[in-house]
Design brief:
The structure holds two protein chains of two kinds.
Chain A (H helix, E strand, L loop, with lengths): L2 E3 L5 E3 L7 H26 L9 H9 L1 H27 L5 H30 L5
Antiparallel strand pairs in A: 1-2
Helix pairs in contact in A: 1-3, 2-4, 3-4
Chain B lengths: L5 H5 L7 H28 L5 H12 L6 H26 L7 H28 L5
Helix pairs in contact in B: 2-4, 4-5
């Protein structure tokens, strides 16, 4: 198995895990949750027995139900984690230095934090909106 | 060709077989889905502008004048179901299941996902043309 200089003195074997096995486990576990969430989401947003939850009244009405609100907040956090963790993995495997990896890692954490705070606030505000 | 060969290495799946195709497409589909996720956040932010604005925006994508977006939606469905099916295979392999048969598993899981997808698209289309939700 050949090795490759990554620019900072550390040598990574080809095919070696670069994002840690715990992150791989979290990625797999969150993926399983997402399949469940997405199946429910696609059904209620596009089929729902002929009355999809798609337009303003139905979306606000749906978010007023605390169970649905909790469902979508969990969906938001898990899907954002899974997506950004995946992007991090892709960037990590581009042969960048350990120093750059650290920078990318913090950037991803910052983007994740901003994204879930924004999404959570948006959901909570929309749940309080009045239905005409 | 290892995982550190960079983005250029992704395009090399033509001579590398289905495993490399899956590796490349999983990354490309994943990036597409993340980009869509942020577009989704942006569209949903229009809920704050009230019912009239939000509804006219949503119906412009489904019933015109921008109903060409339905084609994009169908392509997105394809990308998402592809990614999910291959993701199940990667997860099973992660736990040591089916490593010896990962190529067969790729075809089986992708075929099953495409069947479910067609079923979903059929029913979603029926709801759309019947004017459901409007």
């Amino acid at each position: 198995m050949s090795t490759e200089e990554n620019g900072s003195g550390t040598r990574y074997k080809h095919g070696q895990r670069t994002t840690g096995s715990i992150q791989w486990l979290f990625q797999a576990a969150s993926g399983v949750f997402i399949i469940f969430f997405l199946a429910v989401h696609l059904y209620v947003a596009h089929i729902n027995g002929g009355s999809p939850i798609e337009l303003f009244d139905t979306v606000v009405g749906n978010l007023r139900n605390p169970w649905w609100l909790a469902f979508f907040l969990a969906f938001l956090w898990i899907v954002t984690y899974h997506g950004l963790n995946g992007v991090k993995g892709v960037i990590y495997e581009m042969g960048i230095t350990a120093k750059t990896r650290k920078l990318v890692s913090w950037g991803i954490i910052a983007l994740f934090t901003v994204s879930v705070i924004y999404g959570t606030l948006l959901s909570l505000v929309v749940a309080q909106m009045t239905i005409p | 060709m290892g995982s550190n060969s960079g983005v250029i290495g992704w395009g090399n799946f033509f001579h590398k077989g289905i495993g490399y195709f899956a590796y490349t497409m999983h990354r490309i589909s994943g990036i597409v889905i993340v980009l869509y996720l942020y577009l989704h956040f942006f569209v949903l932010s229009n809920l704050l502008k009230g019912g009239a604005t939000f509804n006219s925006l949503i119906t412009s994508f489904t019933y015109g004048p921008f109903d060409i977006f339905i084609v994009m939606d169908i392509l997105l469905t394809l990308v998402i179901f592809y990614h999910g099916a291959n993701g199940i295979r990667l997860m099973l392999n992660e736990f040591g299941l089916g490593l010896k048969h990962h190529k067969v598993m790729f075809y089986v899981l992708e075929s099953a996902a495409m069947a479910v997808m067609l079923l979903f698209l059929y029913f979603a289309w029926q709801v759309l043309v019947s004017g459901g939700g409007v």
